[in-house]
Amino acid sequence: EPLAQRDAEAGTLEAPLTPRRWLATSAEISAGTGDPGPEDGPPSYPLRRVDSVSIVDDFQGAGCGIVFGGLALAGIYSSIAAVLVWYSTQVPRTCQTGLRTTFRLMGSLDGVLSALLVCLFLAAKVLVDAMSHGVLAEKYEVEGRIEEAQRQKDEAAKKMASAVIQGCFPGLALVLLQALLMATWIYGIVQALDARWHDCGSAGTVFWVMLAVNVTSMAFSGCLHVRSTLPR
């Protein structure tokens, strides 16, 4: 049975996710008379109905945005990885520091990071789906549709468990990978400080630029992932 049809049969008009009641006007609040009841007449503004289809569409749009954002970040990290691995072959052989190894390690780790980000953002999308079922369950409880609310709660619990399982191992791998990346950055900083222009050319400058790009990208991806899992 379509969600829109169920809402039409329920026939409830309400503000989003609030019990059905008339809201007090500002004048009544100032006068201390409280909220008017239905016998006091209609409110001074129309109540907006939030139907199930609109809720589902909103969360589906948010989920698609999360997936596209994750794919974009994965593409950025893949590009950075390709540049780093390529540049590791361009470091002059006269450069006796470990910058060549640093570039190769950073590129390899960034490549793995791009794959982990895709897994994590797909898990975040499932989490958003679970949140949509939770919102529907709350809506149906307000409307007195207890049986449908329970079905939505069950579906939300299943989706939540799926999101946790799907994101658990990539999340642990991401923590380990970030530790390895930080160790690589520290090693690279030491090597870049020892690099001499007449031996290593611009390798030291390239390292500082790519380090800044890596740190900025990681901070942005972390903020985006946290934002994607926050309740709306």
Describe the structure.
This protein has helices at 3-10, 26-31, 52-88, 99-142, 146-194, 197-200, 203-229. It contains seven helices and no strands. The protein is 75% helix and 0% strand. It is an all-alpha fold.
Properties at a glance:
232 residues, mainly alpha
Describe the structure concisely.
The chain is mainly α and 232 residues long.
Chart the SSEs and their pairings:
Blueprint: H1 3-10, H2 26-31, H3 52-88, H4 99-142, H5 146-194, H6 197-200, H7 203-229
Helix pairs in contact: 3-4, 3-7, 4-5, 4-7, 5-7
Structural class: mainly alpha
Tally of individual helices: 7
Largest sheet composition: none
**Low-pLDDT residue intervals, each spanning 5 or more residues:** 10-49
Assign a percent range to the helix content.
over 70%
Large-scale geometry: rod-shaped
Overall mean pLDDT stands at: 75
Percent of sequence in beta strands: under 5%
Order of helices and strands: HHHHHHH
**Spatial separation of the terminal alpha carbons:** 27 Å
Rg calculated over all Cα atoms: 27 Å
DSSP strand count: 0
